[in-house]
Amino acid sequence: MSTALSPAFDGRSAVFAGADICSEAGLTLPGNAARPVLEDDIWDFTHVIGLPTQLSPSVRRFDFTPITDSRWRLVAKELVLAMLAPRHQTVAPLPRAFRNPLHVTSCRGRLDELVRFFNWLNGRATSSLQQITTHDCEAYLAHRRYVLDENGAVIGENSHATRRSAAQVVVDLVNYRDLFTADRVSAELRPWGGATASAVAEMPSGREENKTQPVTDDIMQPVLAAALYLMSTLGPHAVDLADKVRESDLHSARRAQGLRRVGPKNRVPVRELSEILAEYTRTCTALPMLEDHYISKRLEQGWAEDDPLLPVAMGTLARRAGLSQFCHPWLPTMRPALEDALAQVGVERPFGRDADLIPTADGTASLPWTLPLSRLQAVALVGIVRTAAIITAAAISGMRASELMELRIGCRRPPEESVPGLTRYRIASKIVKGQPLGGTHDEWVVIEPVYRAIELLEQLHDAPTEGALLIGRFSFNVRFKWFKNWVNSQAGKRLGLASIPEGPINLRMLRRTLSLEMAYRPGGLLATKIHMKHIAVATTEGYASRPGGAQAELLAEVNKHESERNLQLVLEEFRNYQQGVLPAGPGARSLTEFFASIDAQVDTSSTAAPKVQRNDRDVLNLLTKRAKTLHLGPANYCWFTDPSRALCLKLAGTPSADRPLIGMCDSARCPQATHHPCHRPVWAEHAERTEIFLGQLGATRKTEHTRLQADRDRALRVVAEIDATSTMNEASA
User: Fold this and answer.
1) Pairwise CA distance, residues 455 & 438, whole Å
2) DSSP-derived 3-state class of residue 220
3) pLDDT value at 6 more than 80
4) What DSSP line would sit under 142-172, residue for residue?
5) pLDDT of residue 254
6) What mean pLDDT comes out for the span 597-623?
7) 432, 52 in Cβ contact below 8 A?
8) Residue 719 and residue 716: Cα distance in Å, rounded?
9) Binning pLDDT at 50, 70 and 90, where does residue 367 land?
10) What is the Cα–Cα distance from 349 to 286, expressed in whole angstroms?
């Protein structure tokens, strides 16, 4: 298809004139919503049904007005609509057009880059797209590639994604040139020799390591500890506080129903105000205190700093008395009564008085769960607890931001108890990433802390109607900043919370941290706070219940990390063997013989330097099969090469299982278990604790004494074996 430009451009599109954008793109709108057409300079998709909650209102509005040239503005509109509606009769025949509709978010990104490109062309005095050459394409790519300071000096490079967007806008103008009415690039233009935008931008192949780094231990430890503490200990009190704030707002707002409207010219309501002051003194309730910014405002208006009534919230008193406001001209008349009541009961912030006692996070004391709070402080504290619940749910479930934002009131499924004592918890949401418009409904099998976090979020919701968004769109970076500031403030220190150090953290990092922790269990930080076995089981059940679901992706990521971890551990032990550091335990001989066979096949000591890299790959290839049999126990490595020899399977009566039962492992007797120097601290601590328990047993508890003594002797024997191999290694060295 090749058409010539219209001889006289009248401002209308030759192919999309009057087109209903949503109708052409297959986007559904409510019946009463405004429908954008091609000629509109702003396409508003705010009310399109099925757009993800994560999509902000600004991204839902396509604004073409920054493109000043009317011809190029029409080019942008035609290009964006063609990407939204690739099956349009005029778009479909284009040989290099997209065959599937782009998401609204992607089209908005293309529009933003078009605006930049057209404005850049204006700055170069380019009057027509026909004038663009390959040199211009290279120049624009260089313009978007580098980051410049205020003096125009290069100080860095933009990301590969930014460079790809810059190349893609040129490629799109070439691929869709026959569609444009007002202006188009030359038919001879072939930027970068026809290479794809990804190739031009030198995008990574995807085989490199995941660029999202996990949260560091020094940050994750206090964050997770604070989130779990606030959710479990402060959560119920925060729910009650939120209810009291809402109830207070109903009666304390200036426009609350039932209040008598009054003004400065009305008579002073001495009787009504005196009655409410008498109630405060009779019940020994402190008068309500103003917010700090209102006190500052009074000082600016001329109040004396030593005025005893400066902090008293007289407006709140008036509304408690049934009046819409407290007028300043009433103050001289009411001052004696106000000061008398103030002298008797004092003034205090209205929320959190007489708070219940709770244990501090460090377990050193019991104290009121909060100090008295103003309304703003109470709302902020409820928000901090809500953020704690979000952090808990994200860190333990691995849900993405888009999936958390799609949660709704009622998303918790009733707990299922398949067997006594074994309860399964499920929550429902949507998968948005990689799914068609509207997302795909899915369920997550989670552990109880996640289920309770969702329950707390429902209880803290301002309007918990069935089906309403539970969290809605939120900025995790902003919420976490508030959370960290509160934990590091005097309020957090008062409750015994450890300070959170500076450092990056976001929802992607939390998801990656979870996947790595699951892959490297039983070690890892999360294992100290949450039972990792339970998370692994829940995630696996989520995968089994819906193989194509979100937890399948998380489990695939975990399995990948687990394979990498196992291969690295086996390689480390092989290198230890080569250095004379041998394993201990019943399976030590078998593992040593395996390493000896590998060492005989690949003699790395005689390898010339240029071939070392190849030899390392050979070693990894030979170790891969054994790495697949490795399972980490809390105090041993399990080499599950022969299920018939696995002691745990014999004890459980399941000899045909394809995985060991690590929870039943008796590594001191199992012929497939080995102990290494990294396991010594676990066995030594176990022996020490058992000895303490033995010393506390009474003389009559002989059976228990015999059992614990045998347990201690076994631990000491394992420690001695590990020490013996270490001593032998040192002697041979």
Assistant:
1) 25
2) helix
3) no
4) HHHHEEE-TTS-EEEE--HHHHHHHHHHHHH
5) 66
6) 63
7) yes
8) 5
9) very high
10) 8
Number of other CB atoms surrounding residue 140 within 10 Å:
21
Residue with tokens 């041998």: 582
One-letter amino acid at 654 equals T
| Alpha carbons 221 and 638: distance in angstroms, whole number | 28
Other CB atoms within 10 Å distance of the CB of residue 138: 14
Is 249 strand, coil or helix? helix
**Paired tokens of 524:** 């890892």
Average pLDDT on 191-206 reads: 86
Q: Which helix (H) or strand (E) holds 328?
A: none
Whether the pLDDT of residue 541 is over 70: the answer is: no
Q: Is the pLDDT at 539 greater than 70, yes or no?
A: no
Helices and strands (H, E) in the chain, number of each type: 25, 14
The pLDDT assigned to 412 comes to 94
| Angle in degrees, CA 360, 365, 366, rounded to 5 | 75
The residues pairing with 440 across neighbouring beta strands, listed in sequence order, are 431
CB-based burial label for 51 (10 Å; 0-12, 13-18, 19+): buried
Q: Please give the distance of CA 291 from its chain centroid, rounded to a whole number.
A: 33
The one-letter amino acid at 358 = I
Distance of CA 241 to the CA centre of its chain: 26
DSSP-derived pairing of the beta strands 146-148 and 154-157: antiparallel
The rounded mean pLDDT for the chain is: 87
Whether the per-residue pLDDT at 439 is higher than 60: the answer is yes
Characterize 387-418 residue by residue with b for buried, 16 or more Cβ atoms within 10 angstroms of its Cβ, and e for exposed. bbbbbbbbbbbbbbbbbbbbbbbebbeeeeee
Dihedral sign from CA coordinates of 469, 473, 476, 482: negative
pLDDT of residue 669: 87
Q: How confident is the model at residue 206 (pLDDT cuts 50, 70, 90)?
A: low
Strand-strand pairing, 287-288 and 347-348: parallel
